[in-house]
Amino acid sequence: MSLNQFKLYLESWQRQDPTKYQDMIKLLRQGDPESYKPPYIWLHYDDNTTNGNITVSRNDVPSSISFTVENPNSLDLRRTLFVDLQAKLPGEREYHKVNQFPHVVQPFDYEIIEDEGGKERHFTSLKRWPEITSFSQIGGVGEVKLRAYMTDGTRDYSSSSLSNTTYPYYGEMMINITNAPPQLFNASLVGPPSPRYNDPLEYVAEVFDPDDDLMAVTLHITDPAGREVRNETQEAKSGQVSFKAAQYGFFGEADAGKNFTYYYTVDDGIDVTSFPPRDNPNATLEGPNIRSTPKLWVENLHVEPVDENYYYWDEYNFSVEMRNQEPYNIEIPVTLKIKTEDKNWKGVETRTVTVTPDSKRIYFPTDDAFDVLDRGSDFSFRFEYQEYDQNNERSAEMQWYKPLNQRLMKYDLVSIPIGINLLFVLILPLLGGIFLEKWMGKGRMG
Amino acid sequence: MNLMQVSFLAIVMLLLLGLVAHILNVRRVHRRIEMLEHKAVPKEKLLSDLYSCQGSNFNALALTAWILFLTALSFFYLITPELFPDRNYFIQLPRMASSLGGLALFSLLGSMMMILVIVGSEKMPESLQCYRLAELYGYYSMSRNEKRSMIVAIPLLWVSISISTHMATIYPTFLAPEWWGAFILLFASLLLLIWPMTKEMWEGRS
Known about the structure:
The complex is a heterodimer. By secondary structure, chain A is mainly beta.
């Protein structure tokens, strides 16, 4: 049939059978661009929600967020649709695209769903956004609104413009995003038990953020009073962090002899958490207790009595070898103390001595070390000094297991002191008797 | 009870014997005088009449002997720690005891104590004047020889003190003969000092 013949038929049907003519015209107009109808888009979420509101942690994956497009156009009129997921973040006014690349819905990419009874047919397409893995990048917590946004190249369509939606279709979804605070475990200080300030020390801990955020881990070093003296920060993902004291120069010579404590704070950008918790400011981790830097080397304590019988009245020559471990001389007070079975440490003598880098024996001769009460006793002696020695002590002592002699008196009977004493023992009573008689006169005759 | 304690007890008993003898002697004389007089005689008057001076030299030496006795007793029992391990001179006054003049000072202490006792006994009332140490021998008739014998106590006590001193110088070595020597001299001296009382008690017992 030629076009002219078809035209003549139409004019004839218009006159003779107007109903069929109208059906024909309708049929002919189905491919007309002017009859293009707008598609509809909804968010599709088939997990449990409360009216489209869900609460997730920042790194939880809202796995089943999808969109559904219904396209009322016939295949030849359908256009390719580009769909984005848009989010309005807490505190913001505008929506921003969440996915990097839009979802594409091709004209043939629909399935036919018939109404009950098969009277109407709907062309729908359901797709997910697999690239949505978390909301960790939003850098905050709060309510996030989601919507689907679609364009067919000519017009844009938004799911939020739809109202009266029902489960599982939503024009707009509200997601309450929460933050899981970071955690820290197994904090320890690796190093010698009583380190020097320059010994290798390493603060080690394991950090973990449930949201897999990058964390700022700060080590706070405090003095025993709880005052912070140093802090250093490292950025870390979940895993082990370590702070090497030597690398950061935490401790110097001036810290020798001091006891430190420490604690951590971990910041995931939203929450800052302390370990141990700072509810109690005294809750800290112990260490390190820095050893005092020894300057002295002390050895070979010795005592030499003048008499080998170890009488308490004898002179004893106590001595000790000392040297300065630094290459210069120092003058320090050294105190000799002695302890016996009945008496606790008693200071005998304090003397300022010059300690040189070369080992030198220092003598403390004394005849005042013991008294008569120490007879028969073992004794110990100790040198006390103000600098630390190689054992990190400020004293060195020695137990002498040879007991002192039991003898009471220093002099023999036949000696000048005893002789003079005995003379007095005779004279004093005689003088007493004469004095009393002279004073009282009891024996005078008549 | 060890030997040291027994010896100390013996000394104390001997002292008590002297005291008891003296008390009994005075009472017996008082009783006999009253029997002879057939009337009550006040004790004060009796003691005043009974007292006779023995001479200043003797009295001074007698007092010296008593002072020396207390000193010798102290040297024998208080220098070494056998009898009083925690109460002896060297434990109580260690610095003084071990000083150069420790023995002389100890002697001074003993003498002062005895002088105080003698002076203190002077405060006794007239009815008890017979117990004044300075008048002790005035109630007894003593011959010159008896006085001489009693005064021998002084050198005996001095020898005892010397032996005690030697025992201290050699302590902890213990020489039993030495100890016995010092003790016997001390005991004998005390016997001499109380001899007039005990003799009077013995002779006047009937």
